[in-house]
Design a protein that fits this description.
Number of strands: 0
Helix content: 55-70%
Shape: globular
Number of domains: 1
Distance between the termini: 40 Å
Radius of gyration: 17 Å
Structural class: mainly alpha
Strand content: under 5%
Oligomer: single chain
């Protein structure tokens, strides 16, 4: 899949060009960092929108999630990026960490932490409270130990908002396979959360 930056007049960039820019950015090239971010920004925002940020008027909008993601990734601190798939795996992991950090803040707030509240929609996997979101994180960590590919699928689809077709394209398999694996992963996570 090719990625277009926010400028509608900009030419499409190839995966190799984006990877080259991302790697220049990780080496500290500020101009490359800005260019790489511009190229992946729109796709990251679409992913955040699909992820469900800002459901029902919550303060954590897709734009805010991508901004948080940018700060968390700090392209200059990533190390070598192999390809688009590797970058989006890193982005998915960072979005998961942002979601879990949010759940910890909300749980702390309930105990008098006084932190401003914002929400990321985790209800699709049975987590509707901050505590359940933390349980989801623990279940996902267990799933990663048992089956890393299923864990990555959950991160990509649920936390990064990639569609099943996007994931199938990245993995070189059929969308039905991804949907089947998603149901397996979701079932495992729900059982693990119910066992708590």
């Amino acid at each position: 899949m090719l990625i277009r930056g926010g400028n509608a007049e900009a030419p499409m960039a190839t995966e190799a060009e984006i990877t080259e820019l991302l790697n220049a950015a990780t080496s500290g090239d500020a101009a490359a960092q800005d260019a790489a971010y511009a190229l992946v920004y729109d796709e990251l925002k679409r992913c955040a929108r699909r992820q469900g940020a800002a459901q029902n008027g919550a303060a954590f909008t897709p734009t805010a999630l991508v901004s948080e993601l940018y700060l968390k990734l700090q392209l200059g601190n990533l190390g070598r990026i192999a390809n688009r798939r590797h970058f989006f795996a890193l982005a998915a992991r960072a979005m998961r960490q942002i979601t879990i950090d949010d759940a910890r803040r909300r749980a702390s707030s309930k105990r008098g932490g006084g932190v401003e509240d914002f929400e990321v929609n985790t209800s699709d996997l049975g987590a509707t409270t901050a505590e359940q979101t933390l349980d989801l994180d623990a279940a996902l960590n267990a799933l990663f130990k048992r089956d890393p590919e299923l864990g990555q699928l959950v991160e990509w689809h649920f936390f990064a908002g990639l569609t099943f077709q996007d994931i199938a394209d990245e993995l070189g398999c059929h969308e039905r396979t991804v949907r089947h694996d998603w149901e397996l992963a979701r079932s495992y996570l729900r059982r693990a959360m119910d066992a708590k």
